[in-house]
Amino acid sequence: MTVTLITGANKGIGFETARQLMELGHDVYIGARDAERGEKAAATLGARFVQLDVTDDASVSDALATIDSAEGRLDVLVHNAGVLGSEATDGPTALRVFDTNAVGIVRVTEAALPLLRRSPNPVVVTVSSSAGSFWAVTDPERPEFHLPLALYSASKAAATMLTIQYAKSQPGIKFNALEPGTTATDMTAAFGVGRSPEESARTVVRLATLGVDGPTGTFQDEAGELRW
């Protein structure tokens, strides 16, 4: 059975990704900062729960140690945890947004690498955003052009770059980033736009289920590879 960890999976795209991967036979660990919400989400799906705050080194280490003890390996890692940071553009908010959206990827990836290396087909998927794409934010025809989220966009540019750099430094593991599409979640509620998490999760699932000959070091949406 494929062992999968999804960060920030107690709601939204992460929760729906967990549901769809479980339907495909994955043994899913729902990582969530809030234990009560995470345990409830896991119980709803019949998944496993592991407390995981991507901004806390000890929490990340403990979560991966739990999976290591129970499974001995990790086949799929989905970096889904993220924050919008729309409340202010200042130093404290920038530190929080980058700590979650970018530094969190480093924390979890580094802790997971020993487990991923034990998998016959290790895959890492980063839920990024074309809001962090120079190509998209400079095109007036793209919705990202009009998105007033400097910190979120910059942190997602970092998330995509980290994905590419890990793909280069870890050739035995497939690393890919994705633009999930504008999705109606708690995080985007203030904008009043977006499609269902179910639809957006399909791209995550596609990249999470790549075969051994699948691509690595790409940035994709539902239609295929994107410029960025």
Topology diagram in text:
Blueprint: E1 3-7, H1 12-23, E2 27-32, H2 35-45, E3 48-51, H3 57-71, E4 76-79, H4 91-116, E5 123-127, H5 134-137, H6 150-169, E6 174-178, H7 197-208, E7 218-221, E8 224-225
Parallel strand pairs: 1-2, 1-4, 2-3, 4-5, 5-6, 6-7
Antiparallel strand pairs: 7-8
Which tags fit this structure?
single chain, 228 residues, alpha/beta, Rossmann fold, eight-stranded mixed β-sheet, 7 helices, 8 strands, 44% helix, 15% strand, globular
Q: Tell me which oligomeric state these chains represent.
A: single chain
Q: How many β-strands, per DSSP?
A: 8
> Main sheet, how many strands, which sense, barrel?
8 strands, mixed
Give the N-to-C terminal Cα separation: 35 Å
Q: What portion of the residues fall into strands of 2 or more residues?
A: 15-25%
Distinct helical segment count:
7
Descriptive account of the structure:
The chain has a single domain, classed as Rossmann fold (3-Layer(aba) Sandwich), CATH 3.40.50.720. With 228 residues, the protein is of the alpha/beta class. Helix 3 runs parallel beside helix 4. The model has no long low-confidence stretch (mean pLDDT 94). The chain has an 8-stranded mixed sheet with strand order 3-2-1-4-5-6-7-8, with helices on both faces. Strand 2, helix 2 and strand 3 form a beta-alpha-beta unit. The longest helix is centred in the middle third of the chain and has 26 residues.
